[in-house]
Q: What sequence folds into this?
């Protein structure tokens, strides 16, 4: 079972999260945690949903408003999506470098942009940082 598989009915999910089922319904209406639905429209919660409910409870106990919680969850989802994209790009770069060994070296420019420099060339230390270079090229 994966953490995103919808398996728990609302009563079980509420018990696992330490909440009342009506609270889960409210969070669904507010779109804080949106469970999947069966063909009969019953809510089904995943382990990820349960973790998110617990996070909402923790933030609420610390005094964060529901709107603040919504923003925290949005930002956490955005960070997760960006992290996935970075991993995809790292894999694509690694694949490219395997296909063309020794062809390119990348550096971060002064403004944060990615620049390509010739293999065997050193980046200017005061404005660029090498973020990747082929193995065996020091």
A:
């Amino acid at each position: 079972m994966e953490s995103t598989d919808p398996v728990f009915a609302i009563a079980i999910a509420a018990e696992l999260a330490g909440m009342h089922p009506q609270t889960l319904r409210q969070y669904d209406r507010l779109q804080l945690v949106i469970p999947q639905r069966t063909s009969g429209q019953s809510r089904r919660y995943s382990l990820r949903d349960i973790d998110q409910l617990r996070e909402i409870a923790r933030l609420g106990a610390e005094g964060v408003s529901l709107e603040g919680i919504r923003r925290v969850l949005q930002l956490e989802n955005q960070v997760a999506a960006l992290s996935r994209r970075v991993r995809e790009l790292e894999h694509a770069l690694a694949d490219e470098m395997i296909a063309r060994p020794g062809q390119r070296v990348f550096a971060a420019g002064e403004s944060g942009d990615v620049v390509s420099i010739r293999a065997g060339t050193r980046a200017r230390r005061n404005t660029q940082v090498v973020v990747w270079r082929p193995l065996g090229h020091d």
